[in-house]
Every structure is written in structure tokens, then in C-alpha cells.
Amino acid sequence: MPPRGILLLLALTGCGSIGGLGPRFEAAWTGSERGRIRATATAMWCQDARIAQLTATKADTGVAVLLHPSDSLKAGHYPIVEPAKARASAPASAVALRLLGSSTVVGYQSESGTLTLERVADGRVWGRFESQAKAASVPAGTITLIGRFSAIPLAPGGGSCPS
């Protein structure tokens, strides 16, 4: 294959994620802030606490997703609620966004929405979410956060899990 053909093939496959088969996390937000993130993500399952945590970070931006299933982690719909209510409302989920605003770091936390865990298989998770979120501490307004994740490896949480 000529060198130009190899470069084109690498560009199209995204270094191993052709057709979305590799791990991928992407989200976009609109409202009082606008932006997007495409990043690698990690996920862990805390069996005893029955919590799955997915995080994606790139530069000064980060997104975290917490899933609180009733029992085991399985495909289905998880209403998105405020983080403080998620565990008591299982099955439920919560979403948070941290970003560098125009003059300060701003954190947003979910108020409402839906997360669909599409698939849990072969030690990986796939899903999508849409959430309304508010600024956690500064008067920065509200955003709509829409995201999708695919083939994220799900590791046991071990010592990183809450009790």
C-alpha cells in the first residue's frame, strides 16, 4: 500500500476505533456554556456498593457518570437525578461536568434526564445520556449535556470504591 494510502487508513480508523469498535466517550453541552469533549474513558464497578463510575477527562474538562443499579449492572434505563438523590433512588444515575469557564473552573451537576445503558458485555459498557444540569457552586446557569460512550472497559473498583 502506498504511504498516502496508509495515512488515509489510519485517519479513517482513528488509530483502532474503526466503526466505533474501540473505547470512545463523547459529549456536548449547550446553554450557559457551550462545548464538547471527545476522550478516552475509564469505568469501574463497585460490587458491594452497587455503583458503576465512568469518567472521561481531556485537558481542563471532565465528565463523570455514576450508575446506581438496583442490584447488578445491566442494560436498561436509569433516570438521571441530582447526585445526592441517586443512591436512594436506585435504579438511577447522576452526571457531572467540570470545565474551565471564562474566568473560573465551573462544575455542573445533573438535575434530571435519562441514561440508557445499551449493553454490558465482555467486561465493557455502552450507553448514551441526556441531562439537564445546573452549576454546582457559582451562579453560572444551566446546561443540557448530551453524551455517548462505547466499549469502555469496566474494571473492578477494589480499594477505590466507597463503603
Structural commentary:
This protein has one domain (22-157). Helix content is 9%, strand content 57%. The chain is built from 2 helices and 10 strands. A 7-stranded mixed barrel has the order 3-4-5-7-8-9-10. A hairpin with a 2-residue loop joins β8 (105-121) and β9. Residues 1-19 have low confidence and may be disordered.
> What's the average pLDDT?
86
Radius of gyration: 17 Å
Number of helices: 2
Count of separate structural domains: 1
**Content-based structural category:** mainly beta
Q: Whole-Å distance between the termini?
A: 55 Å
Order of helices and strands: HEEEEEEHEEEE
Helix content: under 10%
Strand content: over 45%
Question: Order of strands side by side in the largest beta sheet?
Answer: 3-4-5-7-8-9-10
Number of strands: 10
Largest beta-sheet characterization: 7 strands, mixed, barrel
- The coarse overall form would be globular
Low-confidence stretches: 1-19
Key features?
disordered N terminus; 57% strand; mainly beta; 163 residues; 2 helices
Write the SSE topology.
Layout: H1 3-13, E1 24-31, E2 35-39, E3 41-46, E4 51-58, E5 61-68, E6 76-80, H2 83-86, E7 92-100, E8 105-121, E9 124-135, E10 142-156
Parallel strand pairs: 3-10
Antiparallel strand pairs: 1-2, 1-10, 3-4, 4-5, 5-7, 6-8, 7-8, 8-9, 9-10
